[in-house]
Amino acid sequence: MALRSRRVLTTFIHGDLRHARADQTGTVCIRLASRPGVTPSDKPPVRIFMGTEAVQFRAERAFVWSIERVRDPARVYEIHLMRDLVGFERRLWLTGFTNYRFLIPELAGGRGRAIYNDADQLYLSDPAWLFDKDMGAAGVLSINDRDTSVMLIDCERMRPLWNGQAARRTGNRELEQHMREAGLWGDLDDAWNARDAEYRAGESHVVHYTTIHTQPWRPTPQDYVYGANPAGDVWTQIDREADEAGFQLFDAAHPSGGLARRAAMLEPEPDAAERLADVRRLVVDSGAESLLYCGTEPQFLAPLARSGRLKGDNRVTECPLAELAMGRQPDGADMVAVDGLAQLPDLDIAWLLNTLFGVARRALVVAVTLDTSAQRSTPADEIWWYQQLAAAGVRHPDRHWRLIVRQPRRLRHPREWRWTGGALLDARPRVWALTHYKTGHASQAVGMAAALGWPFETRELTREPWRYAQALIRTRLGLGGALPGGIRAPWPDMVVASGWLPGLVARAISARNLSNTRLILLGRRSGRVGESPHIGVVCRHFDLPSNPRELVTTLPPSKVDETQLAEARQQWPDLFRADAKPRVVMLVGGDSAQHTLDEATAARMTADVLGEARRAGGQLAILTSRRTPAKSVDAIRQAAGTEAIIEPWTPTRPVANPYLGYLASADILVVTGESESMLAEAVATGKPVYILPLPDAAPGLRRRLADWVVRQANTDRFNKRGSRRPQEGLQYACARLVERRVLVPRRNMPKLHAALVDQGVARIFDGELAPWTPPVWHEMDWVAQRIRAMLPVAGAGLAGRRSTAAAERAAHG
User: Fold this and answer.
1) CATH code of the region 259-422
2) How confident is the model at residue 544 (pLDDT cuts 50, 70, 90)?
3) Domain 562-698+750-764 maps to which CATH number in 3.40.50.2000, 3.30.450.180, 3.40.1130.10, 3.20.20.60?
4) What is the model's pTM?
């Protein structure tokens, strides 16, 4: 209860900032009329009342679209949104609509029937089937007498018990008890409320995402660490269909009822100088030649028009936000700037952003000043605004967007949040790959940057953690300056990083570039993606919490490709005897937090592999790594004698490293199983790979603590209905530690090995080496294609834009 108590306390101190003002006296009705060309039905409209709140805006749309998909085209459906109703003390509720359902008999006028649904549900069958059911003597049908999340209600029978006074003054459990005591409850088929794992394809009529911390649309990431839902693909598919159909709950022809009143009350936004600077910056970065301003201040962009930065007679045009809200369709422009949206009803934000994205040919910049007053019409919540922009951006993937959210504070500079998302502004973005002393992480970063196909530069991080710590503190304080190692502006468009230190530096670079640098974060230690347009690449066997901006792979990225192998083959043609066949290369890792390589194991592995190479008439080369203990290297030397080639790892190598040469020359590769990077490089060669699993290491204190934290994070609690309770207390705290990568699950190496064996690219070494032809491994190509699909180009690149933008970036340091 600690988390919920903290949220409740916060709302009493600062106000219920995630909701608009609770001043609605009735519902907002969305009417689905009989479809054109169909003879209208004479049956009564299907009335559905949905409990919802602003943070469920994506769920609302998916819910209504799910009905549109399956409804009777001849019949009328009325979907009533119950949100922000007056007179309720919602700060004590788990959701912002808990008791609204008990107001339905009164809202329906005490006549006829009504269906109740939570916003976190989808219809897979026509709700008319439920609406027309025989209710007998019951006043309510639900799957049990303690679960009212899906109900068919006889409004006349239930109004004496469930009405405005009761709903506002009585708890939900007590109101359900009144229903039971009056003998008004009736049983409903469980298929009308299939909760999470209860979903059955082709059988369930309604799927209910009742486990709050597994809801696929992630409505409140501030409160929960979201995990996978067993029915998550159903919601994702319906949401995607709604996007493809261009479906919105409201639009310019049918706005919400409060829009006209709010549009007439628009006031100029504060901090004009800061907003103008943001517009100037995007004009330079995007190379825009025309600009449209939709906001609250006439002549806001006059200084920019006089500056000569924009070309053409109609370089700056304006469409007041009030006129846009009332249906005006402005002409398009390369770039659109907007402010004042927070003063309009939250129900209209989605379609207004959709309109603005449609008008912008290349880029959109949205400046939001949070309204924390009691009269606010949108949530004063920066994450809500990010989710709105991100959702609208998905429907316009070829547009670049920037969001700046400011929260005014007394006697202090406004608090500020920034995001950059959508398409890239340049067809040849500037890319940095951050490297450091850990060769595996460096290989992953360089390999990923190379696979993307854009020109890139490397930036090597020095082994000076204290200097980086100081630089990161300076970044957090907004002091700027160069990072260690000469890392300074002009900043790149994109940074690829693998490992905890490169991940921290990548975030510092993005912060110093005002969040205009996108990050591609690889692996466990580079950190979480969170609620941002950055992209993560993680392996399946990491068992980390899921995130829609993360690509899940079998192996980490690798710098090894056919071009590199061909060059290495020419550079090192004589590593093996000319008559050696097969040429076996053994890649040896070493100690890690989970595994150990002692002398006995090293000697045994060497003898076994050497014996097989000898039996086949081949030659063995053994390459050690930075993690191979010195005593284990000695044991390998002793076991190999003079028959094998030994290439020990050294901190400084006076000549070029022949590592790739051995990969290129090998016929068979044998790899110790604790290293994902070496396995990835071996598999990338397309040659037979054998895995040598290493023994588990005795867990240290940190590992034991991490194991305990992971267990607590994955231990769900259940209520009397059998549903999982939301994350609270210890479970939430531990889940957040895991999500932030402070403590992480063990790498599930048996799971990785099994996946490689199942895909036919590797085998477990069982004492015998036999050649075979593995399938071609295209995972890196797939990852690069997915990233490029997530980062398309916003229009054609403009000649000369780069140099101007670089100077501007340098000015902002």
Assistant:
1) 3.40.50
2) very high
3) 3.40.50.2000
4) 0.91
